[in-house]
Amino acid sequence: MSTPAVSQELGAFLRAHRERLQPADVGLTATARRRTPGLRREEVASLSGVGLAWYTWLEQGRVTASRQVLEAVARALRLDAAGLRHAMRLAGYHEPVPADRTAAERLADAVRPVLDSWPTSPAVLLDRHFDLLAWNAAWTALWGSPEKVDVDRRNLMWLMAADRHLRSVLHDWEPLAMNVFQHFRAQAGPAIADPRTDELYRHLEADAPDLRHWWGCHTVAVLTAREVVVSPPASTAVHLTLSSFHPVDDPSALVLLFTPNSPADLARMNDLVERPLRATA
After folding, report:
1. In the chain, which segments carry CATH 3.30.450.180?
2. pLDDT confidence of residue 1
3. Residue ranges of the HTH cro/C1-type domain (predicted)?
4. pTM here?
5. What integer pLDDT is reported at residue 17 of this predicted model?
6. Which segments of the chain have a pLDDT < 70?
7. What is the pLDDT of residue 34?
8. pLDDT number for residue 212
């Protein structure tokens, strides 16, 4: 089951969604004098079929909910699929995750040949904290080598927020970066309360203080397929399509794949990958 810290995170998540809903959104009539933003707790409790005191304790992180009751609360709050998944994981209903570093290394060894099979498509394997476990030569050619980043900062959220090179070459940086943070919250679940996540947020606070409002936000979303445009130094802009999938061996991990959109983009990526080889020839 969830820890007290995670229960409080679940309560904050539910409260944030309750305060964004209006009575009309759930078929209720708004009264003239309504001081509470969004729905009242008693309205959510009634719609969910639970007692007001119990629902209040749920938002305060003082009780745990069964899967069925949490589904009823999620319906009352009009959570989408990503929101329901996030709430379930925060409540402790989540898929198993690797227990130690050795398991992560085994996963990286298993997936690395898959990444290398895409020689002109940048690809990376992330664990449940979005730490980079493995990447291919095309990823290094486009974004720079992760090995140049300190191990404790070798994380996709840190790269999106604090890596100045990545921010300078990626067009429309902010929407993708925000989506990365939203996806992390949607899929991390209990990882939000563990020491590695705390460490990441401390690094983000120190290295990207201008974005501190991002990690205080409770919105969640799935990292959706989209076009990404990158302008590497001394190269024409490359148009890529971002897609993602979960390895069968560990559904909490994530593979990101950036596929060139056209033959011209493929040729540019091929040139970027071969450039270091020509330099050493």
Report:
1. 101-280
2. 46
3. 13-84
4. 0.70
5. 92
6. 1-6, 30-36, 94-101, 188-193, 277-281
7. 63
8. 84
Among all chains, which residue has been given the structure tokens 């011209």? 264
Which CATH architecture best describes the domain 4-90? Orthogonal Bundle (1.10)
Residue written as token pair 């959510």: 44
pLDDT given for residue 193 in this prediction: 64
**Tokens 């009009």 found at:** 78
What is the pLDDT at residue 185? Answer: 81
CATH of domain 101-280: 3.30.450.180
The residue whose two tokens read 């897609």 is 243
